Amino acid sequence: xxxxxxxAWPGLDGNAVGCREKLKMLAENYAEVSQVLQDAFEDAVLMxxxxxxxxxxxxxxxxxxxxxxxxxx
Length: 73
Hints:
Elements (H helix, E strand, L loop, with lengths): L19 H27 L4 H13 L10
Helix pairs in contact: 1-2
């Protein structure tokens, strides 16, 4: 089961993001990414991929995400 959308999104200054438009976009992105991951996970498991291995693959993808605030080396 996918956890509910976070109730607070921490900002760089330590305070929660408060702009309604930003919160709306974050919630929409969360829902979209959650659904894509769930679909991909189900497909992989149904095709015989080990669940733990698939979770590790997803974790590796997240760990490798590039920040738009840092230049690519």
